[in-house]
Design goal:
Strand 6 and strand 7 form a beta hairpin. Helices cover about 35% and strands about 20% of the residues. The chain contains seven helices and eight strands. It is globular and about 45 Å long. By secondary structure, it is of the alpha/beta class. The strands form two sheets. It has a six-stranded parallel β-sheet with strand order 3-2-1-4-5-8. Strands 6-7 form a two-stranded antiparallel sheet.
Length: about 190
């Protein structure tokens, strides 16, 4: 696997509100936060561009709603913002895709000459997956660092329930098998980025 010299890292919704287990339920990938931090460090040290995405939920009960403490980035992300040698973007969104945020992610990537980006963050099957799918549809070479993402148990139609592991794996299979993105490990991304 090759990681381009100017590949961007898109860090999706790594916000304090996702630590409220009583709201979200059981999560998977307990090492995801450490892997996200590693990717940010590697990207910033190499001078590659990083986009930090924040979800400003419009739902009044959401731990991610604007004005609530949970809306802010987790401490390890906030501490790293503005520390890289490369270009940096901060954008906010109210929907699943970072491509429907402000400022415009697609325009920024194009202005930076970026044709490839790596996605990490929360939730695997929601905003990470939607951002990766749209990136693939827009012609980007998208890489998802699976173990630098996590999600939660989820209930669906017909009384179906899936664990966080099952939901995350289904998203990974859909992205990778459907040709939207390559789903790999953080270690693979880091090795290829050196």
């Amino acid at each position: 696997m090759d990681i381009a010299e100017n590949a961007a890292l898109v860090v999706v919704d790594v916000q304090k509100g996702f630590d409220e287990a009583e709201f979200w339920g059981h999560r998977n990938n307990p090492g995801a936060d450490g892997n996200i931090a590693t990717l940010i460090d590697v990207w910033q040290a190499s001078g590659r561009p990083v986009a930090f995405v924040r979800h400003d939920s419009v739902k009044p009960e959401s731990p991610l709603r604007a004005g609530y403490e949970g809306n802010g980035f987790k401490a390890y992300v906030e501490e790293r913002r503005g520390k890289g040698a490369g270009a940096e973007l901060f954008l906010t969104k109210t929907v699943n895709s970072a491509f429907y945020g402000t400022p415009d992610l697609d325009a920024w990537l194009k202005a930076e000459g970026v044709g490839q980006f790596v996605v990490a963050g929360i939730q695997t099957n929601m905003c990470v997956e939607t951002t990766a799918r749209m990136g693939g549809n827009l012609g980007y070479d998208v890489v998802v660092a699976y173990d630098a993402t996590y999600t939660f148990d989820l209930a669906g139609p017909f009384g179906w329930r899936r664990t966080a592991d099952e939901v995350g794996q289904a998203a990974a299979v859909s992205l990778h098998g459907g040709g939207f993105a390559r789903v790999v490990t953080t270690a693979e991304v880091v090795d290829a980025a050196k």
